[in-house]
């Protein structure tokens, strides 16, 4: 019996310029580039054990046995590359305060990419890891890096990966997550974006305007310009959600409470406080702001939301190996 194991930790990321649509479903190649901030507060720890005595892959999430189908498909890529057929036991723990419903496929597949490739004896570069993580879930491509990362869309498996834009974020920026619903989303990102690409008449305009947003957002990051970055992120998120309303059949991830949070952020801005919102494929609202303003923003949000619905997160690190448990 031979056993090879490794453990890795990856943090989730929130896209400021979004990925919403694929040009290749199988390879997970996106229609446009995207840009995200990796967060310190939400992460996944994953241990992969290749064990020659196993008859199939096994998967546990937070100590509960799960179907291993998706994980197996991903491990097949690692097995192909390392020219072996051994099955693996995968154990993951999502570290998300208060089970906030923010656990994401981004941290999951970034952690799995590093743990599985190391356990299989592959010593992949971060670029190769980013490409591998992409095959599990598009947003995982960016979670290989800390801080701000850009996913270059590419045209083939080889040239679609993330690059670090600013791994150490040395200026004042944070996100306050407003937890509105801890339930699993009804329409997955995968289904949602596919429907939009197929049916929204606005899709070509999304791709074009997102490419322009991305260039401006990179400049804003370089210039540490939170106002410009926030304006771009908020408008890009609204355009993504507008695509969903324009699909057939239409759908939306917004809930009444999402709109309440969005209005509160807008109201804070009229009082001169710099804060902007973004939402992914779910109702939770993430507020981009500076730490110096976070107290007043939280106080305002607390006029409606309970303190445990508000979680502050700061720029976080890239994927790393951790001590095996
Ligand atoms: C709205 O990465 O979850 O968060 O590639 O199909 O697994 P798949 O989708 P996923 O989509 C993320 C969409 C988003 C925007 C983003 O993270 O860029």
UniProtKB/TrEMBL annotation:
<comment type="similarity">
    <text>Belongs to the diphosphomevalonate decarboxylase family.</text>
</comment>
<protein>
    <recommendedName>
        <fullName>diphosphomevalonate decarboxylase</fullName>
        <ecNumber>4.1.1.33</ecNumber>
    </recommendedName>
</protein>
<keyword id="KW-0444">Lipid biosynthesis</keyword>
<dbReference type="Pfam" id="PF18376">
    <property type="entry name" value="MDD_C"/>
</dbReference>
<dbReference type="GO" id="GO:0005524">
    <property type="term" value="F:ATP binding"/>
</dbReference>
<keyword id="KW-0547">Nucleotide-binding</keyword>
<keyword id="KW-0456">Lyase</keyword>
<dbReference type="InterPro" id="IPR053859">
    <property type="entry name" value="MVD-like_N"/>
</dbReference>
<feature type="domain" description="Diphosphomevalonate decarboxylase-like N-terminal">
    <location>
        <begin position="10"/>
        <end position="162"/>
    </location>
</feature>
<feature type="domain" description="Mvd1 C-terminal">
    <location>
        <begin position="176"/>
        <end position="313"/>
    </location>
</feature>
<dbReference type="InterPro" id="IPR036554">
    <property type="entry name" value="GHMP_kinase_C_sf"/>
</dbReference>
<dbReference type="Pfam" id="PF22700">
    <property type="entry name" value="MVD-like_N"/>
</dbReference>
<dbReference type="GO" id="GO:0005829">
    <property type="term" value="C:cytosol"/>
</dbReference>
<dbReference type="GO" id="GO:0004163">
    <property type="term" value="F:diphosphomevalonate decarboxylase activity"/>
</dbReference>
<dbReference type="InterPro" id="IPR014721">
    <property type="entry name" value="Ribsml_uS5_D2-typ_fold_subgr"/>
</dbReference>
<dbReference type="InterPro" id="IPR029765">
    <property type="entry name" value="Mev_diP_decarb"/>
</dbReference>
<dbReference type="InterPro" id="IPR005935">
    <property type="entry name" value="Mev_decarb"/>
</dbReference>
<keyword id="KW-0443">Lipid metabolism</keyword>
<keyword id="KW-0067">ATP-binding</keyword>
<dbReference type="InterPro" id="IPR020568">
    <property type="entry name" value="Ribosomal_Su5_D2-typ_SF"/>
</dbReference>
<dbReference type="InterPro" id="IPR041431">
    <property type="entry name" value="Mvd1_C"/>
</dbReference>
<dbReference type="GO" id="GO:0019287">
    <property type="term" value="P:isopentenyl diphosphate biosynthetic process, mevalonate pathway"/>
</dbReference>
């Amino acid at each position: 019996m031979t056993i090879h194991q490794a453990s890795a930790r990856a943090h989730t990321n929130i896209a400021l310029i979004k990925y919403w649509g694929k040009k290749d479903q199988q390879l997970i190649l996106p229609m446009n580039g995207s840009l995200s901030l990796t967060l310190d507060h939400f992460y996944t720890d994953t241990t992969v054990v290749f064990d020659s005595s196993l008859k199939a892959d096994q998967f546990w999430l937070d100590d509960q046995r799960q179907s291993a189908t998706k994980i197996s498909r991903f491990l097949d890529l690692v097995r192909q590359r390392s020219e072996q057929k051994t099955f693996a036991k995968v154990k993951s723990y999502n570290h998300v305060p208060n089970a906030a419903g923010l656990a994401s496929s981004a941290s999951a597949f970034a952690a799995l990419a590093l743990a599985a490739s190391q356990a299989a004896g592959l010593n992949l570069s971060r670029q190769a890891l980013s490409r591998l993580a992409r095959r599990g879930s598009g947003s995982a491509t960016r979670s290989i890096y800390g801080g701000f990362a850009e996913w270059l869309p590419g045209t083939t498996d080889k040239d679609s990966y993330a690059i670090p834009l600013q791994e150490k974020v040395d200026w004042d920026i944070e996100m306050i997550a407003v937890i509105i619903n801890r339930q699993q989303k009804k329409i997955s990102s995968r289904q949602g974006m596919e429907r939009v690409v197929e049916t929204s008449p606005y899709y070509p305009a999304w791709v074009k305007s997102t490419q322009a947003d991305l260039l401006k957002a990179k400049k804003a990051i370089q210039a540490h310009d939170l106002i410009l970055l926030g304006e771009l992120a908020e408008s890009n998120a609204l355009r993504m959600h507008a695509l969903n309303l324009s699909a057939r059949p239409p759908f939306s991830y917004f809930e009444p409470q999402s709109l309440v949070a969005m209005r509160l952020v807008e109201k804070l801005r009229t009082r001169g406080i710099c804060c902007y919102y973004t939402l992914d494929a779910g109702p939770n609202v993430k507020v981009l702001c500076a730490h110096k303003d976070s107290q007043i923003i939280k106080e305002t949000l607390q006029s409606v939301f309970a303190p445990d619905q508000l979680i502050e997160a700061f720029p976080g690190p890239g994927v790393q190996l951790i001590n095996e448990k």
